[in-house]
Amino acid sequence: MIGCDIEEILEISPECDERFIDQQAVPELAELNIGVSGVSTLQDYYKVGRKSPMHHALLFSVAGEIEVTTKQGVCKVGHGQLIYFPAGKPFLMQLKTTQWRKVWFELDDIPKWRKRLAEQPLVVDCRQTHQLYHLLSLLYYEKSAELRQPLIKQLNGYIKQSLNVKQHINAEEQRLNQVIDQMEAKLHFPWTVDDMAKLANYSAPHLHRLFQQQFARSPLQQLIEMRMQRAKYLLANTNWSIEQIAEQVGYADVFNFAKRFKKSVGLAPGQYRKCKKTE
After folding, report:
1. Contact 91, 97 (CB under 8 A)
2. What's domain 172-277's architecture?
3. CA angle 182, 187, 192 (to 5 degrees)
4. What is the architecture of the domain spanning 9-168?
5. What is the value of pTM for the model shown?
6. DSSP alpha helices (H): ranges in the chain?
7. Rounded distance between C-alpha atoms, residue 234 and residue 183, angstroms
8. Do 9-168 and 172-277 come out as alike in CATH topology?
9. Is the dihedral of CA 135, 138, 140, 145 positive or negative?
10. Domain map (residue ranges) of the chain
11. What are the per-10-residue average pLDDT scores of the chain (279 residues)?
């Protein structure tokens, strides 16, 4: 059986950067029954095998890709995904890209976690990877117990969301949401349908069908809608020039932006701003 021959292996390049967050540094982790956690940027080479781990492990893949071997077989885990390793079950992880960035947690092997993880799939798409990465980075540096409290509350909430099995029923919807999140974070990027399809690991025609089903728009129509919504916000809430706003939402040509904005909103950018300022 695959996975039965996995041995204890620890091969980590000096180029890897791992920052551990344990209960000594953050005592509040004990309230969540988390033994240790951390953020890691792995590069050059990285290979870790565990024959019978004492704790459950959650690994949130933020960027890059890792190859994982378990008794179920071999799979790849990429950005925006969560993989779960149950206590007592062997696994092997090997770096397969130039760099892999992850957030990870070792969970105490107690009834609370065993119950919550009982129906957890091995690998699922997850929208919380970036939030958890930044949240744990803050916890790593925060020395004040008072200021850690809201961070711990957020951490607990994100972990609960990521382990909500109901969220993982529609994997396609989650993958689309990840694409939307990336587009929204980089509206200035010259997106093409091929870029979006590559991000979602779908063909361009399949992505088009999914966007139509989910949003009743093509991928490019959805992008335009998002850009116009951002432009409306910036026009109403900043003093940036129309040229600056056009650039921020992905239009190098301000005249093209103005034409698109008027078609979508019904007013020219300057008119829209004037209306909002007088409300």
Report:
1. no
2. Orthogonal Bundle (1.10)
3. 80
4. Sandwich (2.60)
5. 0.64
6. 111-117, 129-141, 145-162, 171-185, 193-200, 204-215, 219-237, 242-248, 254-265, 269-277
7. 17
8. no
9. negative
10. 9-168, 172-277
11. 70 93 94 94 93 93 91 86 90 91 94 80 82 91 92 91 63 77 89 91 90 89 94 91 94 94 94 86
Query: Two tokens at 152?
Result: 């711990």
185, two tokens: 């974070």
Sequence-separated (6 or more) residues with CB below 8 Å from residue 40 = 16, 17, 18, 19, 100, 101, 102, 103, 104
- Measure the CA angle with vertex 119, ends 91 and 107; round to 5°: 55
| CB 46, CB 11: distance < 8 Å | yes
For every residue of 100-166, DSSP letters joined together read EEEEEEEE--SHHHHHHHTT--SEEE-TTHHHHHHHHHHHHH---HHHHHHHHHHHHHHHHHHT-GG
